[in-house]
Amino acid sequence: LDTLEKWVTEIFSKIPNNGLPKPSFAHLTQPFDTPEFHKLYRVVPIRKVHSLSITWALPPQEQYYRVKPLHYISWLVGHEGKGSVLSFLRKKCWALALYGGNGETGFEQNSTYSIFSISVTLTDEGYKHFYEVAHIVFQYVKMLQERGPDKRIWEEIQKIEANEFHYQEQTDPVDYVESLCENMQLFQKEDFLTGDQLLFEYKPEV
């Protein structure tokens, strides 16, 4: 560690700190508030596959990284057990898989907006009932909205993510350093190592 610290100091201490704050584009509100966004687009795929993707544009969520509200919602949307959307659609033989969430990339989460998407892989029969599948997805999201957050579920997710963090496999050092450098732009200093993985605070209003 002493040697590594010496190398880092020698190589990086010459880079000047200009003292400027991190760029923010929060003033560019509602970039998707256009007629083109509020539409259904049909795309002919190259492969023989049927997929339904529903995308919502939300206010920026990166400030809530300690709560991770989108992770909580994606956990419920992507649940595959009894009472889930996918379980219901599979019983009707309309869907094979379902995924919901935010990719946490610069395009999907930034200081202007956050994207939340639900993607359903449809069967041939599901494609014939395309609108009904979309309606069921919206019904499920509406139900979650009306029920509100559940602390027991949030704490369950928190424990699972903590276990995965503590028992994760060792990653490539170069990839890990690159990930930490990115985290330094997004999180408070004490959360550089954990901010992208752990849930810290339960705030139902968020």
From TrEMBL:
The record's InterPro entries line, in alphabetical order, gives: Metalloenz_LuxS/M16 (IPR011249), Peptidase_M16 (IPR050626), Peptidase_M16_C (IPR007863), Peptidase_M16_M (IPR032632)
Q: Does the keyword Lipid biosynthesis apply?
A: no
Query: Which of UniProt's keywords are assigned here?
Result: Hydrolase, Metal-binding, Metalloprotease, Protease, Zinc
Key word Transferase present: no
| Domain of life where this protein originates | Eukaryota
A Pfam family the protein falls into: Peptidase_M16_C
One biological process term from GO is: proteolysis
**Domain Peptidase M16 middle/third stretches:** 165-205
- A Gene Ontology MF term for this entry? metal ion binding
Q: Where is the Peptidase M16 C-terminal domain?
A: 2-159
Give the UniProt family note: Belongs to the peptidase M16 family.
Enumerate the PANTHER family for this protein. Answer: INSULIN-DEGRADING ENZYME-RELATED, NARDILYSIN
Q: What is this protein called?
A: NRDC protein
- In which organism is this protein found? Indicator maculatus (spotted honeyguide)
Q: Which classification does the entry list for the species? A: Eukaryota, Metazoa, Chordata, Craniata, Vertebrata
